[in-house]
Structures are given as structure tokens and as C-alpha cells.
User: Which sequence fits this backbone?
């Protein structure tokens, strides 16, 4: 018996750009969509049928409102901060979804690393931090360290430290960016970053695809400039990653979820380390656009169906996976004033370019420094037949799109792609 979508009331936690693909899918089916968010310039506020202005951390208030309004499903994507609230609402109202503790087992970095230690999944040596005045001499692994909040995202609050003098400030900064005033200090592991996208149903892990991640050549920030599917890493190393993902999925046993994980791989030593994982799709349109382009699998459609309680043949769904290529490309601009832009229409018209997101880029604007992921420019979403074809197309785009910036000293500079 098919579901009567007109009787469904879907609650979407968050109203940012990451929620828009799910909202559009639900509304196209005739589902009534409500978003819950704080006030702000968020695109879903104007698009959804209803909007509740409630802080996503005021979870009991949201549950009470959802019960009053007869909400039948709750969902979100592409944002770590939303997922615990989604789980809390689903658990309290008995809706399809995961338990709060299951989501926190992934989203909280300290908890996740502790679970990795229990399972034998390789993670960087680490220590939880709750006090900026902690004794740094008690940390047993050597510098350099990576310091980050235990519950943030988008590289917010993340710093590399090479000496004890800068460590205290980095810890203070990370704690200030944490909602729970908790941070993590971990060893720096040298390796190439890969992204692992999967889907869990009843504790069983299904691999979607791997991607290679490239970073801007900056010492002051750790911000990706490209994420490209599929990865060029050897199958032997990728199989090790899948084994880690399967063990964690079986241990936590989520009901259903997209799972986004990030690993560092040292191809010289054949060592791997898990650095991040969360029960949500990858941001920058990874789950909504790049995975469908690279695999042929519409995972947003699947997670929406499962959240609605529909009976889905997920084994047949995963069996239809294809192997193509896709990726996002971001950039930043030097300091100064934008004086010329060209090539936007030509790039947008290319059949293999699926999105050109150039927000707040126009002649006359002053550029801002890139300090976290959200301050990058783009993305541009690109697809190809395979990885080699994808990279050729990216080079063509970079050659076509030109943005000139007049620096304070009068010199003319262009886009910084890497």
C-alpha cells in the first residue's frame, strides 16, 4: 500500500542550504514541510510551508510543538549540528530514525574516537580537553598537534599547533567554539585525506564511494579546495577503510542514515587514521548532488523514504550503483576590490557543470579573508566519465573563469584555486 503523501507532515531541522535538496524533494511529492530554525538569512524559511523559530538546541520545546502539530517524520542533512536534534525528536515521538545516543556516538569527536579505540579502528592519539588551563605536560604524544572543538564542523575552531606556547591559545579558541565547552587534542598524522560516503540500514554498512580531498596551500587554515569522486587510493587501503566503517556501523547499529567519514592515508607506510565521522551526508552538496552523479544513487530520496516509514527494497537500490566521477571545486580571492569578472556564463553553459554558486561576487565588492570552510567561494559542481576525464574538465573551467582583484598596492591578482 503506497503512502498518502498529502497526509504527511515533515519537520526539517535547520533551514540552511544543506536542507534545501531534501525540502524540494518532499514538497514535490505534496508533503507538508515545516522547518525549525533560529531567525536569520536562511533560504528554507521562505520556501517551506511553515517555519518555527525555535533554537535547535531547545529540543524539548521542539518535541512539544511537533507533538501538537502532528509531525509524522523528521529529517535533516549535511550538517553535524542538526543530527542530534533530529534523533532526539524521532526518539521522543516514536518516529522512524536513530536514537540520540547513536547519533552522538558519531557526532561527538571524543566519543567517536573512544569507540574507535574499543573496536581497534585506527585513530590519531588523542585526549579530551575541558579546561583551557590543563597541564599540557600530561599529553603523552609529541607535537605537532591538531586542536579542535568536539562538536563543531566546517573547520571552525580547528588549529594546528607546533609548540606549547601556541597550544593554550588554540585550546582556548576551540573551547570557545564548542557548544558543550569541550575540545580534543590529537596527534598530527601525515597523510592524504579521503572522504568515505556510505549508507547504513539496520546496522549494515553499504559503501557508496570514496573521494580524494585536496586542500588550499595555506599554513594558517585547514580548508579543502576540491573533493573528487572516485578516489585514486589503492583498493587494499580502501578495503581497510570499509572494514572500519562496517565495524562501527555494526557496533552503534543505526536504524538508517547516510554516513560521512574522513580518513588520512599514508601511502608510504600503508597506515590509515579515522579523523571524522557523522550520521549525515557530506556537505557542499556531496550527498544531494555529487553522490548521485558519481553512483547513480539518489540517497536523499532513500533517506526521505525511510524517514517517512516507507517499505523500501534497499538491497536492490544499492545493487544498481554505477561508477562515474564528480567533484566540487572551490576557490578564494586575494584581498582587495573585485574589478572584473568574466567566463561565468560560458562555464555555466558547459554540460558537465551542474552548479556554479558564486554568492557575493560582483564588481566593486571588497573581498574578505578565508578563515573557515564557509568563507570559500563556490562551489562549482562538475561531473565526468571517470577521474581522468573529471580532472581535465576542471582544468578547462579554471582556464575559463576569471575574476580580477585590485590589491591595496594597485596590483591585479586573480582567483586562487589551490
Assistant:
Amino acid at each position: 500500500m503506497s503512502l498518502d503523501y498529502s497526509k504527511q507532515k515533515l519537520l526539517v531541522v535547520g533551514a540552511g542550504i544543506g536542507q534545501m535538496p531534501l525540502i524540494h524533494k518532499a514538497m514535490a511529492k505534496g508533503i507538508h514541510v515545516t522547518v525549525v530554525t533560529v531567525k536569520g538569512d536562511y533560504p528554507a524559511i521562505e520556501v517551506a510551508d511553515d517555519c518555527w523559530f525555535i533554537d535547535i538546541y531547545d529540543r524539548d520545546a521542539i518535541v512539544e510543538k511537533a507533538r501538537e502539530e502532528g509531525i509524522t517524520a523528521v529529517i535533516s542533512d549535511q550538517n553535524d549540528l542538526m543530527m542530534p536534534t533530529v534523533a532526539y525528536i524521532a526518539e521522543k515521538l516514536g518516529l522512524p530514525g536513530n536514537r540520540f545516543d547513536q547519533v552522538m556516538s558519531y557526532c561527538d569527536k571524543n566519543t567517536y574516537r573512544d569507540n574507535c579505540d574499543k573496536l581497534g579502528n585506527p585513530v590519531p592519539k588523542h585526549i579530551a580537553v575541558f579546561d583551557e588551563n590543563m597541564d599540557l605536560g600530561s599529553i603523552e604524544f609529541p607535537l605537532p598537534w591538531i586542536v579542535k572543538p568536539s562538536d563543531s564542523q566546517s573547520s571552525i575552531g580547528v588549529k594546528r599547533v607546533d609548540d606549547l606556547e601556541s597550544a593554550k591559545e588554540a585550546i582556548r579558541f576551540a573551547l570557545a567554539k564548542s557548544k558543550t565547552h569541550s575540545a580534543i587534542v590529537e596527534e598530527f598524522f601525515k597523510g592524504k585525506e579521503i572522504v568515505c560516503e556510505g549508507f547504513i540500514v539496520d546496522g549494515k554498512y553499504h559503501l557508496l564511494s570514496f573521494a580524494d580531498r585536496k586542500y588550499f596551500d595555506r599554513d594558517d587554515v585547514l580548508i579543502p579546495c576540491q573533493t573528487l569522486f572516485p578516489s585514486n587510493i589503492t583498493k587494499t587501503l580502501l578495503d581497510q577503510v570499509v572494514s572500519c566503517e562496517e565495524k562501527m556501523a555494526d557496533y552503534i547499529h543505526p536504524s538508517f542514515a547516510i554516513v560521512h567519514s574522513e580518513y588520512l592515508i599514508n601511502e608510504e607506510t600503508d597506515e590509515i587514521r579515522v579523523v571524522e565521522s557523522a550520521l549525515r551526508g557530506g556537505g557542499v552538496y556531496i550527498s544531494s548532488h555529487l553522490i548521485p552523479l558519481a553512483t547513480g544513487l539518489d540517497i536523499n530520496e532513500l533517506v526521505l523514504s525511510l524517514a517517512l516509514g516507507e517499505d523500501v527494497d534497499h538491497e536492490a537500490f544499492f545493487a544498481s550503483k554505477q561508477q562515474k566521477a564528480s567533484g566540487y571545486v572551490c576557490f578564494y580571492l586575494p584581498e582587495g576590490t573585485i574589478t572584473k569578472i568574466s567566463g561565468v556564463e560560458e562555464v555555466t553553459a558547459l554540460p558537465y557543470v551542474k552548479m556554479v554558486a558564486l554568492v557575493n561576487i560582483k564588481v566593486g565588492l571588497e573581498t574578505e579573508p578565508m578563515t573557515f570552510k564557509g568563507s570559500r567561494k563556490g562551489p562549482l559542481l562538475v561531473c565526468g566519465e571517470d577521474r581522468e576525464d573529471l580532472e581535465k574538465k576542471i582544468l578547462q573551467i579554471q582556464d575559463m573563469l576569471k575574476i580580477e582583484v585590485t590589491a591595496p598596492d594597485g596590483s591585479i591578482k586573480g582567483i586562487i584555486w589551490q
Observations:
- The two ends are 52 Å apart (CA to CA).
- The chain has four domains: 7-95, 125-187, 190-323, 327-413.
- The first helix runs from residue 20 to 28.
